[in-house]
Amino acid sequence: MRLSRYFLPILRDTPKEAEIVSHRLMLRAGMIRQQSAGIYSWLPLGLRVLNKINAVVREEQNRSGAIEILMPTIQSADLWRESGRYDAYGKEMLRIKDRHERDMLFGPTNEEMVTDIFRSYVKSYKDLPLNLYHIQWKFRDEVRPRFGVMRGREFLMKDAYSFDIDKDAARHAYNRMFTAYLRTFARLGLKAIPMRADTGPIGGDLSHEFIVLASTGESQVFCHKDYLDFETPAIDTDFDSVEGLQGIVDKWTSLYAATEEMHEAPAFEALPAESQLSARGIEVGHIFYFGTKYSEPMGATVAGPDGTPAPVHMGSYGIGPSRLVAALIEAGHDDGGIIWPDEIAPFDIAVLNLKVGDAATDGACEQLYKALLAKGYDALYDDTDTRPGGKFATADLIGVPWQIIVGPKGLAEGKVEIKRRADGERELVSLEAALDRFKGKAA
Ligand code: 5CA
Fold this sequence. Notes:
It is a single chain. This protein has 443 residues and is an alpha+beta fold. The chain folds into two domains: 3-338, Bira Bifunctional Protein, Domain 2 (BirA Bifunctional Protein, domain 2, 2-Layer Sandwich), CATH 3.30.930; 347-437, Rossmann fold (3-Layer(aba) Sandwich). The chain has 14 helices and 23 strands. A hairpin with a 2-residue loop joins β17 (333-334) and β18. The mean pLDDT is 96. Residues 109, 111, 140, 142, 151-152, 155, 157, 159, 202, 283-286, 288, 316-320, 322-323 line the site of 5'-O-(N-(L-cysteinyl)-sulfamoyl)adenosine. Keywords: Aminoacyl-tRNA synthetase, ATP-binding, Cytoplasm, Ligase, Nucleotide-binding, Protein biosynthesis. Belongs to the class-II aminoacyl-tRNA synthetase family. ProS type 2 subfamily. Catalyzes the attachment of proline to tRNA(Pro) in a two-step reaction: proline is first activated by ATP to form Pro-AMP and then transferred to the acceptor end of tRNA(Pro).
């Protein structure tokens, strides 16, 4: 992408309305624009990051055996009357009437709708287990939308729904998602700790929130420090192995970890003082097992081996990709701006032309830029006529992991500079060496 042809509305001044660093940086880096309280447009840079997060989430959902669908944002109130949640959900639900005066709503979650899909097609235990997920916008009319996309009213959610013949099978489905979540957050470069959690309006009696520790987090959490050193399940984890996954989940739930609602002070205080971690955290994922809470009232039954129909056992599993964009910035930034993990960065490499119009500099930059594109990188070429200082500031602000800085002085000696955004380390190398350094996206 040539910056001169891109749409990157950078703000030089710090927006006053933004209370936390991720919100400030997302506005300054031209990633989002607020349209009304808690409702945002995603500008090109923000959308790139959101899509990259979705790609990781999707890969790990698929790996665990879940199957992607896409359900609508607008739902019929009748479905929610069947489960009894239409009245119970309260003011957070945005209720709408269509032209025929039918009650509709903008979905805050999809348990009812996915249960309706399931009951329409699946009748036998032979078609189980099944886990269907989608990545779709949700609306919750939060009393206090704040911190930008961290707590929005309209936000993106990956929500998966599992269907099983009995409680044991449902436990395995829960463990699959639990394990997939550990892998997903680790791939995003985040340390997310599963904590016993309250189930709120979703219901059920087994639930974990996945919490990223951050001083600006909205939740108060308590856990054993050793979780910070636990190993992530490997890429070749066998998601069909009941014992294997139970082993992973047992390990990751073996030590104390709870959100404020579930906190038991005496148990926590019994830990050695040096192992007690009491901190603020961001909830990036939340998983639930709720048995037959929806399948029973909605008549989602399957026939078991003896032919007797019984309500299917369900769980639901949420991740907030739009919230994750903010969480990643809370976890990765410095005074200069954002520091993205390589896999999530909006661009892989930025080429900074320090003297546009100078034939040698333009030539070297074009050569670099085209070679990087040919190797499959998302390259950003700053070919604008901004001063060098402005280019450095922009590249640092938007957090591209690698910068190749090209100017006439260096080129006179046959050199360009490679800068690593994360630690600021710089290296002077020949143009050929710079090209050779970046071997190809898959390499
Ligand atoms: N149906 C279940 C699981 S699929 C459910 O709705 N769970 S939830 O309420 O816990 O939300 C799932 C995830 O969505 C949360 O862990 C969080 O990452 C994200 N999320 C929830 N509310 C918001 C919000 N207001 N703004 C941004 N992200 C949110």
